[in-house]
# Entry
Amino acid sequence: MQNSHRELSAAIEAEEAVKVLSRGFIAHPANAPLRESLASGQLSSEEYYRQLLWSLYRLLFLFMAEDRGLLADGSLHEDTCSTAQLRRLAREDHYSTQDNLYQAVSRSFAKQSNDGSGNPTKPMRSCFPLSGHDGVLAACRIADSDLLEVVRLLALTREYGTVREVDYSEFGVEQLGGIHESLLELHPTIENAGGELKFSLLSGHKRKTFGSYYTPDSLIDALLESTLAPLLDEAADKPTAEEAERAILSMKVCDPACGSGHFLIAAARRMGRRLADIRGMKDDSPSCSHRKQAVRDVVDRCVFGVDIDPISVELCKANLWLESMQSGEPPTALDEHIQCGNALFGATPELLEAGIPGAAFKPIADNEKAVAREMLRSNQ
# Structure
């Protein structure tokens, strides 16, 4: 039976997992440089929180990729560890005084992703790179017992007295976006009480600062129906299937505040479905290989996004990767098409020096004319 959005969200104890991860890193004897950086303020609580989220999402991403069978064959060796092994140890309540599992998982990720070589056969090379925002945590250690507690929180759930694993093959952009929204609501703090560091998460307003709000399916569907659907109809109405295919693949869809990619994935699905139909490969199954190939082609050529939050950018790339990945055949243009930046600040310095033109304050539609006049007067 498939997990619903609510069931999956309830199964993920992401906030508590972040706290356990933080406590484990701070407590490990080998991580003196981390403790010194936090105590001195050289590493801020906000940046530490960002690094913790980077590590957490990388683990979630591995869960999703592995459960969907999207990882490269033969990637696990004696010095690596699969998430299936982690979940088995967590379920068995395995206890260890060692600290080898975190490094083994990191090596597993390196074999699948960006190892600095730019190898195009790396299936996950575009998502949560090891040279990214994990910062000082990349060189830190954590006890196996703490890592397995994080895995228990993320991957195991108890229903009616029975422990079962969360099925991450059913976990998608909606759930990942919801988790990211909830974690952005929190404000991290570091207290230094007598030389003992304590990491806490309090209610905050970071989500409002970044403008990070989950767009409901109904709004996305209405927007795509009124904007993208007519363009797809026009592109498909060509004399030949080849011309129609070229017309669709020449389209460009850009979300200037893409977040975790909810809108872009919905657009790619629509375009991929129409492209598969034009190719004469109609199939209602979202998992159909023809549909997957069509979506992959759309993601590689037509989909673009920007976000001010670097973690949102990686989540967007990860979600697009999961949506369009076929075993051994990853999308190739995610790094170029999904960028971190402020796309909503569209004026050059020269234009700003000249001032905002008065025409920008001309009221349209249901604008309040009195307010527009006052803004124009203030601007002048």
Confidence is low (pLDDT under 50) at residues 1-7.
